[in-house]
TrEMBL record, chain A:
Cross-referenced Gene3D superfamilies: 3.10.20.30, Alpha-helical ferredoxin
Cofactor: [3Fe-4S] cluster; [4Fe-4S] cluster; [2Fe-2S] cluster
UniProt protein name: Fumarate reductase iron-sulfur subunit
Family matches, as PANTHER family: SUCCINATE DEHYDROGENASE, SUCCINATE DEHYDROGENASE IRON-SULFUR PROTEIN
Enzyme class: oxidoreductase
Pfam family, any one: Fer4_8
Family: Belongs to the succinate dehydrogenase/fumarate reductase iron-sulfur protein family.
Residue intervals of the 4Fe-4S ferredoxin-type domain: 161-190
EC number annotated for this UniProt entry: 1.3.5.1
Organism per entry: Alienimonas chondri
A GO MF term: succinate dehydrogenase (quinone) activity
InterPro entries hit by this protein: 2Fe-2S_ferredoxin-like_sf, 2Fe2S_fd_BS, 4Fe4S_Fe-S-bd, Beta-grasp_dom_sf, Helical_ferredxn, SDH/FRD_Iron-Sulfur, Succ_DH/fum_Rdtase_Fe-S, Succ_DH/fum_Rdtase_N
Keywords: 2Fe-2S, 4Fe-4S, Iron, Iron-sulfur, Metal-binding, Oxidoreductase
UniProtKB/TrEMBL annotation, chain B:
Domain of life assignment: Bacteria
Transmembrane segments: 16-39, 59-82, 109-131, 178-196, 217-238
Gene3D superfamilies, alphabetized: Fumarate reductase/succinate dehydrogenase, transmembrane subunit
Statement: the UniProt record of this protein carries the keyword Mitochondrion: no
Disordered: annotated segments: 259-287
Name listed for the protein in its UniProt record: Succinate dehydrogenase cytochrome b subunit
SUPFAM superfamilies listed in its UniProt record: Fumarate reductase respiratory complex transmembrane subunits
Entry keyword set: Membrane, Transmembrane, Transmembrane helix
Record InterPro entries: Cytochrome_b-558, SQR/QFR_C/D
Length: 260, 287
């Protein structure tokens, strides 16, 4: 898909240009660091760990960056690497990116997600609680659906189940917002709306859900969708822009009729 | 009313407005192109079409008012969205710019990435085009029709009879027109190559598997419209189409012919000698 450089297996010496910012109110700036002896099998976050150890030994403040599971499922990590959310590989989180994707002597420019809805907390860490608030606005099922039904007693066609599952794969990392020129959160919101509204349990509240989640999304200061598909290209969970079409459809349906 | 207002103020609702107004404008642009291509058939076909169109009278003004409203809505919503989207991105841009991870994007030059810029250029061209062709305000072009109007070339209700073909050719013959009309047309094509399919998703009609074919159809439509319009100034320039310097008598004769044929309407203020004697070519045309 993308022409990727590969290291020759030898250890790497890199120049890393990192955005450093004390807090949301302080001005930030780039700092440039040199790091040697990077094993190409390391993950990107392990490289940052090494760089931080080096900074601590030099009695400097380590770089703050978000991370948790380090296996691509939690959605916590996320760095803009050379202008690309989660780096150059498709369908990959930052923690899944290996240093073999880079060449000896490369310069890496690392920045936090930049969006009005994601204020910077420190260095590469931004506050993504806007996503939580969008989720809380309607990304749930509150009607009583009883205890776990017998297997196959609620019929869901395979195609629908697959589509809902694909949308449920969203890990809420924010790469869609980071890579959108409008900092729009439509792919995230669309994935959540699609996941729930496709299923019988979620369809009871689909109108309220679409209306409330979109209202919250707008409230948080995210932009509008220009259909450029950059979010889809940056998404580590392979969420498709057809979900955005579904969100637009759900929203029209929710707006034109009466509420649930 | 509250629900409608909420809908039209939301980020998704604004895109419904953009998509639907854009769709209607595509309908206009396609119709406009179909009419304009008659220029290839020459003076008589084009002038007849123009005369019939302008004979719609109040209906035409109504259509023009509707079009104006569509353009105003489309443009105002576009700039409103651009302003909001810029604000959403925040003050701090990415150091080395955003790099697309899409295979199809070359240097971020894909039409979808600069709709506001292509739209603004098309808007500028549109204003120029209206000044030229709708209002006839460009004075470096010989306003043929006005000279003839002064000489009494009017229809019965006093409207001037324009020789639209001759006038269009004269306007397009100037080098500045050639460049502006060709560039404006191609930029319109660029704008539509995203817009013609993007609206499907904006209004929620795109479904799985439909995106690719819709995109292709949109690009084909955009190429047809862009090159279709651009072909007119290129044709006038490359083929060296001339209308010659019509004398008042020739112009009057031509206008009378069109008027009689298209509208079955005699031209007022003709001198006695001008009224065609029996056996003139025009008496056949009216049959």
């Amino acid at each position: 898909m993308i022409d990727l450089p590969h290291s020759d297996g030898g250890h790497l010496s890199l120049t890393v240009k990192v955005w450093r910012q004390d807090d949301a109110d302080s001005p930030g700036a780039f700092q440039t660091y040199k790091i040697d002896d990077i094993n190409p099998e390391m993950s990107f976050l392990e490289m940052l760990d090494c760089l931080n150890e080096q900074l601590i030994q030099e009695d400097k403040e380590p770089i703050a960056f978000d991370h948790d599971c380090r296996e691509g499922i939690c959605g916590t990590c996320g760095v803009m690497i050379n202008g690309m959310a989660h780096g150059p590989l498709p369908n990959t989180t930052t923690c899944q990116l290996r240093m073999r994707q880079f060449k000896n002597g490369d310069t890496l420019v690392l920045e936090p997600w930049r969006a009005k809805g994601f204020p910077i907390v420190r260095d590469l860490v931004c506050d993504r609680s806007a996503f939580d608030r969008i989720q809380q606005a309607g990304g749930y099922i509150s009607v009583g659906v009883g205890s776990a039904p017998d297997a196959n007693s609620v019929a869901v066609p395979k195609k629908i189940a697959d589509a809902a599952m694909n949308s449920a794969a969203c890990i809420g990392c924010g790469a869609c917002v980071a890579s959108c020129k409008n900092a729009a959160a439509h792919l995230f919101t669309a994935a959540k709306v699609s996941h729930l509204s496709l299923l019988p349990q979620g369809s009871a509240e689909r109108k309220d859900r679409a209306r409330k989640m979109v209202a919250q999304m707008d409230e948080e200061g995210f932009g509008a969708c220009s259909n450029t598909n950059e979010c889809q290209a940056a998404c580590p969970a392979n969420i498709k822009v057809t979900d955005i079409a579904r969100l637009n459809r759900e929203y029209a349906y929710a707006s034109l009729g009466t509420s649930d | 009313m509250g629900a409608l207002r909420r809908l039209l103020m939301s980020s998704i609702g604004k895109k419904y407005v953009m998509g639907l107004s854009g769709l209607l404008l595509i309908g206009f642009v396609a119709t406009h192109l179909a009419g304009n291509l008659l220029i290839f058939s020459g003076s008589e076909a084009y002038n007849t079409y123009a005369a019939k169109l302008h004979d719609l009278g109040a209906l035409l003004y109504l259509a023009e008012a509707g079009l104006l409203a569509l353009f105003v809505v489309h443009v105002l919503y576009a700039y409103w969205l651009v302003a909001e989207n810029r604000a959403s991105r925040g003050d701090e841009g990415y150091e080395i710019g955003y790099r697309s991870k899409q295979r199809t994007t070359y240097l971020n030059l894909a039409p979808r990435s600069w709709m506001a810029i292509s739209g603004t250029i098309v808007l500028g061209f549109l204003i120029w085009h209206l000044i030229d062709m709708r209002f006839g305000l460009r004075d470096n072009v010989d306003p043929t029709f006005e000279r003839y109007v002064d000489e009494g070339l009017q229809s019965e209700d006093g409207r001037p009879l324009f020789l639209r073909y001759e006038r269009a050719i004269q306007i397009l013959q100037t080098p500045v027109s050639f460049v502006l009309y060709a560039v404006g047309s191609i930029l319109l094509g660029f704008h539509l190559s995203h817009g013609a399919s993007s609206w499907f998703r904006s209004v929620g009609l795109e479904t799985h598997g439909l995106g690719g074919p819709l995109k292709k159809l949109g690009v084909i439509l955009a190429v047809v419209i862009g090159l279709g319009f651009a072909s007119i100034p290129i044709y006038v320039w490359v083929a060296g189409v001339e209308v010659g310097d019509l004398s008042a008598a020739e112009a009057r004769e031509r206008a009378r012919h069109v008027s009689e044929q298209a509208l079955n309407q005699p031209v007022e203020a003709m001198t006695a000698e001008d009224v065609a004697p029996a056996g003139s070519p025009d008496s056949d045309a009216g049959d």
